């Protein structure tokens, strides 16, 4: 019998959507000197979210843990071959190919934030500033691939992955759902981000 089972806990969902929002807003505020403080505040928020996600990858719930989407090259190739035949295996968490985009997105996110912080220093080199911009454009490309992958996977497996990232639930036969959603932690994350935003915008660094 198909049941709705909980796959994504609240902190993972809050991380995902706040990360998408802060990246998009940081991108849009990057081009004008007037919106620089907003850009920097959003960058710090993104960095904070990524640091949280790094920790949650070790102590979080089953499908949020890194070891649940740490696939070896053989598994990735096997998934791709099955995909080419139109019969990819179904995963409750991230798929082997989806996980590649996710590892790249998280690594690039950290790289962009770190180069952004370095670029804030008075003696920042042009190379650092350039790397910050180039990595951001590479990230945009990976996000496009990520979105194509989400749509394709939703069609192939006849499941709405975006709805799952919003509600946390997926339809599945097995009883392999997570037991706790950690709503309190998700709420705490939103509160921390809002407090940081207003505190920073009132009194920016430098
Ligand atoms: C409207 C835009 C977006 C949609 C609809 C979307 C959708 C999704 C979905 C459905 C998943 C789960 C995939 C799965 O089931 O395996 C996911 C995961 C993920 N997405 Fe997005 N995404 C969007 C934007 C972004 C952006 C802008 C970024 C990066 C800045 C991003 C980074 C990630 C990451 C890192 C994960 C893994 C989440 C985790 O395990 O914590 N996404 N996304």
Could you explain the architecture of this structure?
The chain is mainly alpha-helical and 206 residues long. The protein has one domain: Fumarate Reductase Cytochrome B subunit (Up-down Bundle). It is built from seven helices and two strands. It has helices spanning 10-28, 36-59, 73-84, 96-120, 126-156, 161-167, 183-202; strands at 3-6, 169-172. Strands 1-2 form a two-stranded antiparallel ribbon. Helix 1 runs antiparallel to helix 2. It is globular. The model has no long low-confidence stretch (mean pLDDT 95). It binds protoporphyrin IX containing FE.
Keywords:
single chain, 206 residues, mainly alpha, Fumarate Reductase Cytochrome B subunit, two-stranded antiparallel ribbon, 7 helices, 2 strands, 67% helix, globular, binds protoporphyrin IX containing FE
Strand content: under 5%
Bound molecules: protoporphyrin IX containing FE
The DSSP helix count reads: 7
> What structural class do helix, strand and pairing data support?
mainly alpha
Number of strands: 2
Question: Can you give the mean pLDDT?
Answer: 95
Major beta-sheet overview: 2 strands, antiparallel
C-alpha end-to-end distance: 59 Å
């Amino acid at each position: 019998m198909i049941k709705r089972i909980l796959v994504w806990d609240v902190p993972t969902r809050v991380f995902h959507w706040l990360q998408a929002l802060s990246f998009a807003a940081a991108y849009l505020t990057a081009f004008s000197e007037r919106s620089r403080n907003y850009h920097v505040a959003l960058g710090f928020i993104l960095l904070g979210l990524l640091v949280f996600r790094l920790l949650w990858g070790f102590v979080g719930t089953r499908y949020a843990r890194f070891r649940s989407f740490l696939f070896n090259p053989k598994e990735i190739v096997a998934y791709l071959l099955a995909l080419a035949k139109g019969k990819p295996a179904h995963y409750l968490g991230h798929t082997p190919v989806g996980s590649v985009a996710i590892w790249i997105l998280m690594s690039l996110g950290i790289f962009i934030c770190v180069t952004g912080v370095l670029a804030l220093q008075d003696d920042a080199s042009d190379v650092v500033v350039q790397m910050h911009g180039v990595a951001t454009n590479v990230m945009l490309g990976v996000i496009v691939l990520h979105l194509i992958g989400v749509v394709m996977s939703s069609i192939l497996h006849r499941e709405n992955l975006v709805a799952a990232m919003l509600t946390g639930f997926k339809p599945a036969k097995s009883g392999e759902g997570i037991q706790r959603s950690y709503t309190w932690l998700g709420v705490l994350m939103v509160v921390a981000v809002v407090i940081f935003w207003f505190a920073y915008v009132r009194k920016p660094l430098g």
